[in-house]
Specification:
Layout lengths: L6 H10 L2 H9 L7 H26 L5 H12 L1 H16 L4 H37 L5 E2 L8 E3 L5 H14 L7 E2 L1 H19 L11 H6 L4 H36 L4 H13 L1 H12 L3 H31 L5 E2 L2 H21 L3 E3 H24 L6 H19 L3 H15 L8
Antiparallel strand pairs: 1-2, 2-5, 3-4
Length: 433
């Protein structure tokens, strides 16, 4: 094997992407850089961290259940989103009269969750079908006659993730009813995620997955060295993400403001898009390696921990800023943002009930997401001060009605998901039919 094609060369190149950022960050000179330079340097660091994260998670699959490795990957990949949202929640608590900060915390959270599905799930499905068709594989995609009916086939091993995300989504419809995110929401949502991790850890280690490149090379190490390597990759990439994504996001915000984009719109959409970039890059990498199920597993795990841990911990951070217990408040618009996000999640999950997502379904997710964002942006830009809640209400209704319509035709799939989740909780591995 030539030096340029050696796995260690790939590792070194990914690490080198972070060197400029480490120099500026370590020297304390980031603030003296221009906005464009900050975006470029921090963006390269995030890109490098994404590859290191993916390689670390794939290497870890030799020693821990794949679902748990993916869950750890998902937590690290969405760490920037936690940091940004926690900042707004803490600011709201430290300044009780600052209702804007509390609303921004909710807006940032809902924007991030909708981006994960509207761009993430839809984009990865379309990319997976494109890559499979280009490579000539027949097992990862179901080729069907009809208009845009070709579909990505997902392994039913992700049934547990789908089940827990469905429960979290159904509970999310209740959150706005109290006018704030409170301690009950924290207990329920964080409890759901803890239960999911416990069940995931009970799964067996799967040695059947064939890895190539960097993960295959690292998996040849003796176990102590392999474990140390995985921990190092996770720790370093996590450090890069925690330090580089916030400047990257704020840099994009500044660039957006220079273009006349409203600050609130930037916080809800541009900042989350930047903070979600590590997981989106990771999933593109997985699909490129013909691991569509692993990519969707990562996206679903990211959605699950954002939909549980992120929402649940906002109350804790807000209370710390407040100096006593308090429920994170939000206004009626943010209540509808939560309902819309829950509706989109319910619709996306109804599509995945049969563990397939077709081109038509992926495009529907993408078009619904983009059209809602563009319509609201257009109204805000052309009619300042106009109330846009009716847009949120209309799209929420579309998502919920469509989800119910699909779910009623897939009762057998729902029963199968429940059977597999219960079996996994009992330590049983239920094979695909």
């Amino acid at each position: 094997m030539s030096t340029l094609r050696h796995p260690l060369t790939a590792l070194a190149l990914a690490a080198c992407l972070s060197v400029p950022w480490m120099i500026f960050w370590g020297g304390g000179t980031v603030d003296s850089l221009g906005v464009g330079t900050v975006v470029a340097v921090s963006g390269l660091a995030v890109l490098g961290a994404s590859f290191l994260l993916a390689w670390g998670a794939e290497t870890a699959e030799k020693d821990v259940p794949r679902g748990f490795a993916i869950a750890v990957l998902a937590v690290l990949a969405v760490a920037p989103e936690y940091a940004v949202d926690a900042l707004y929640a803490y600011t709201a608590g430290a300044n009780p009269g600052d209702t804007e900060a509390a609303n921004l915390a909710v807006a940032n959270m809902t924007g991030a969750n909708r981006i994960l599905i509207g761009l993430g799930w839809a984009g990865i499905a379309l990319f997976a079908i494109y890559k499979t068709a280009k490579a000539g594989h027949q097992d990862a995609v179901e080729w069907k006659e009809g208009f845009l009916t070709d579909a990505v086939i997902l392994d039913r091993s992700i049934a547990t993730e789908v089940a827990f995300l469905t429960v979290a989504t159904l509970y999310a419809f209740l959150v706005p009813l109290t006018g704030g995110i409170n301690i009950v929401d924290t207990v329920v949502l964080v409890g759901l995620y803890v239960a999911y991790i416990i069940i995931t850890l009970r799964a067996d280690v799967d040695d059947d997955e064939v890895h190539v490149g960097v993960p295959a090379y690292l998996q040849q190490f003796v176990k102590p060295l392999r474990a140390a390597t995985v921990i190092t990759l996770f720790a370093y990439s996590g450090f890069l993400i925690m330090t580089a994504v916030e400047p990257f996001a704020h840099g994009l915000e500044s660039l957006g403001k220079d273009l006349g984009i409203p600050a609130f719109f930037m916080i809800q959409w541009i900042a989350p898009l930047a903070s979600e970039s590590p997981e989106l890059i990771v999933t593109v990498y997985l699909v490129n390696k013909a691991r569509s199920t692993a990519a969707f597993n990562a996206l679903i795990s990211s959605k699950l921990n954002q939909w549980t841990l992120l929402i649940g911990t906002l109350t804790v951070v807000y209370s710390i800023g407040l100096g006593r217990y308090g429920a994170l408040p939000f206004d009626s618009k943010q209540a509808w943002e939560i309902w819309l996000t829950a509706g989109q999640s319910l619709f996306a999950l109804s599509i995945l009930l049969n563990f397939r997502i077709s081109i038509r379904e992926a495009l529907t997710l993408l078009v619904l997401f983009l059209s809602q964002v563009f319509i609201e942006f257009y109204l805000i830009q052309t009619m300042p001060g106009v109330e846009t809640i009716f847009v949120l209400q209309a799209y929420t209704a579309v998502y919920v009605v469509a989800a119910l319509g699909i779910s009623t035709r897939r009762v057998a799939d729902i029963q199968d998901i429940l059977r597999r989740t219960i079996g996994r909780a009992r330590g049983q591995d239920i094979a695909a039919d």
